[in-house]
Amino acid sequence: MSKFLNIFLPAASGTALALGLAFGLAGRDYNKSTIESLEIQLDQANARTSAAQNTSDAQNEVVQALQDRLTTVEANLAAAASQIGSVAEPAPLKADTYQIGRLALSEEIAAWDVDVLPDGRGLPVGSGDVFTGEEVFADQCAACHGDFAEGVDNWPVLAGGFDTLADEDPIKTVGSYWPHLSTVWDYINRSMPFGAAGTLTADETYAIVAYILYSNDMVDDDFVLSQENFADFEMHNKDGFVLDDRAETEYAAWRTEPCMKNCKEEVEVTMRSVFLVETPPEGGSNSVMNSATIDGLPSFSATGPAFIPAATVAPKAPAATKAIVEEVSAEDQEAQLIDDGKKVFKKCRACHEVGEGAKNGSGPHLNGIVGRTMGSVDGFKYSKVFAAALDDGLVWDDEALASFLEKPKSYMKGTKMAFSGLKKASDQQAVIEYLRTFGE
Amino acid sequence: MDEMSKTSRRAFLRGSAAVAAGTAAGTVSAQTPDPAITELQDWASYLGAGVDETPYGLPISFESDVIRRNVEWLTASPISSINFTPIHALEGTITPQGCAFERHHSGAIELHKDDYRLMINGLVERPLVFTYEDLERLPRENHVYFCECAANTGMEWAGAQLNGVQFTHGMIHNMEYTGVPLRTLLKEAGADISLDKWVYVEGADASSNGRSIPMEKALDDVLVAFKANGEALRMEHGYPVRLVVPGWEGNLWVKWLRRIEITDRAVESREETSKYTDVYEDGVARKWTWVMDAKSVITSPSPQMPITHGAGPMVISGLAWSGHGQITRVDVSKDGGITWETARLGKQGDTKALTRFYLDTEWDGAPMLLQARAMDDTGYVQPTKEQLREQRGENAVYHNNCIQTWYVDVEGKAENVEVS
């Protein structure tokens, strides 16, 4: 019997899905389309059931059981459908209010409501000139954005790039791209300098904005910006934006029944990934240039790939490996062992820290562990067996460590180190060698 | 150039078909007993971890490579940067919070619930301040929604760039949110909710990331959320309170939400002018491009998830979503878009949420050009990269929802490619 059940599992899982959905209904947000989709699921499950029915007599029993369950699903569905309107309604909205929250004080609003609108509303009284701006900018901004707002390294460029927006590589800066001056004031005032946001005075912000305009050759060096002349200022790209027009330019054309067969004559690979991305265990990623070219890749037609490229056989370790190993010096071997140990230590890292400033985690820190008295780290709460080992003055040497690491729970009966052990002697040795590199 | 002739190709296919049949019937026989079965294993003998071991569990160490990853050279500093959800290794639709992508403009901040304040001001009868506790007293709802960064797949405008679905499509996550409808708060404050008004929202972090939302959307399905997947939001996703703007670009989902202002026009902040605007080929930018159009991608096989089992039965698994509503259909092609088969939806998608799709198929061992193509309930069909470029050029940065192609070679390795 169990044998048949196994064979039948893939077909049954579709039903399980439908069942799960139906039973979940009471607590779910559902609507007509959910019901419809459930019905589709049921049909699919039904179809699978009937297909399965044909496969073999031996499965009849299972099929019968399934059909019984489907009947239950259908009953549940019908029950759920009759309840529409009483399940998962949106949160109510009271006719009057809930009287929750308190009135905001004007000081509070003044502290937080600092946004500036394109017409200049929201600007505080103040002013600043280009020269002052240059000083503040050099002091507070240039480290990242460059002395002339030209950007350092990867940090944002704030000046130049005029009339490049239609180029292959547009340069979008305050000068070339931003449509409103208000945005410059607002953003610098609330978000810059990076790491000390909100520390500029209104006059400093006016001065910096004046300087950024100057860096963009948009004003002369005697320019003074204030809340009074602010609204008159027109940005270079003020007419460079239009509203989202995908509805007209794309949706109208792309809401059509798609092609399913013989949609193209032939397909060729035109480009391969520029970067291969390595994902090291310690996190992050390394981008490596991909040297592979599109030569040697088959084109495709309705009958499949034009040819089957031969598999690139995985490079076998060269026969000379053994000889090379013999030549490796003792130091290299040692270094290799420590390196291997570092990898093994990944299994310990969740609980143990090593190195400078290592703290106790769920396990004690392991600095100086080789030669250390067992159970001796101050402030760590050991199990009884470790406390006893401390009382007996037992010391961790290579041998003890290896035995402990091989089978922690048999070497130290009752230890709370929840680790099944390092089976390979080479792993034990490597991690001990790695730990030896961390002194007290 | 190594290649086989047509005849040897047929022989090859016949050969691999035989292998496939053998595997399917479960007739592969072992030569020696499997020690994993015949030998007593540690875990079957010694004791495992106790219930006091891990008060809050993390994935088992063997899954330690299923993590968010960043690409260092993309940004000047990891503080104002992005990392990517490991969608290649996830299944179903819900993204665990711990590996859901992060995007910050001034880093993820630690803001205690007790220090949390939410202000509503501007064109309101009563400017109000709410505490975190206040929010939990208002009627709330639960919804699953995807959150996709507008720049997801943005690198790929210029060609196939990064070899991994985590990196090409991983600026997305999908969670079940618990929160108060924004309209409830607007009502509390007596906001002017005429449809020509705007709702400006900003966060408590140093970037504050202000954005303007048109009133119609604000009254529709926007949530002021404080839980995700049943537990508190993670710091990196805006603990204790974030905005959820279903179907719209992630940048609008302001984290550490601290202020809501009703205005009579869009603020046109830095995040809605300098950034999150799309420059088309003619140099003219599109602004207020909020909706994320329908999109899909195959997550397995993909460059980080090669086929390792050889020819035979296999599952092609992927994700589809649309900011306009529900996914109604996903088609999969193995030949770069010449022939399409309709995939099975894992379960009918929620509106504006991720939908899982499967193609349960046989691999004959020959190379494939895998593609997926989503359709939503507006009838929209996910476009090819060519269609998108024709319309917008290559410098739009944002909103790249093109069909992705993986080249799968005879060894089952997959690579990010572009096709004619």
From TrEMBL, chain A:
SUPFAM superfamilies per the UniProt record, alphabetical: Cytochrome c
Residues covered by the Cytochrome c domain: 128-216, 336-439
Protein's UniProt name: Cytochrome c2
GO MF assignments: electron transfer activity; heme binding; metal ion binding
Source domain of life: Bacteria
InterPro entries to which the protein is assigned, alphabetical: Cyt_c-like_dom (IPR009056), Cyt_c-like_dom_sf (IPR036909), Cyt_c_1A/1B (IPR002327)
Keywords: Coiled coil, Electron transport, Heme, Iron, Metal-binding, Transport
Coiled-coil intervals, chain numbering: 35-83
Organism: Nereida ignava
From TrEMBL, chain B:
Pfam families: Mo-co_dimer (PF03404), Oxidored_molyb (PF00174)
Chain ranges of the Moybdenum cofactor oxidoreductase dimerisation domain: 286-404
Domain Oxidoreductase molybdopterin-binding: 111-268
The UniProt record lists the keyword Ribosomal protein: no
MF terms in GO: heme binding; molybdenum ion binding; molybdopterin cofactor binding; sulfite oxidase activity
Keywords: Metal-binding, Molybdenum, Oxidoreductase, Signal
InterPro entries: Ig_E-set, MoCF_OxRdtse_dimer, Mopterin_OxRdtase_euk, OxRdtase_Mopterin-bd_dom, OxRdtase_Mopterin-bd_sf, Sulfite_DH_SoxC, TAT_signal
Top-level taxon in the UniProt lineage: Bacteria
Record GO biological process: sulfur compound metabolic process
Reported cofactor(s): Mo-molybdopterin
Signal peptide interval: 1-30
PANTHER family: SULFITE OXIDASE, MITOCHONDRIAL, SULFITE REDUCTASE
NCBIfam families assigned: sulfite_DH_soxC
Full protein name: TMAO/DMSO reductase
Native source species: Nereida ignava
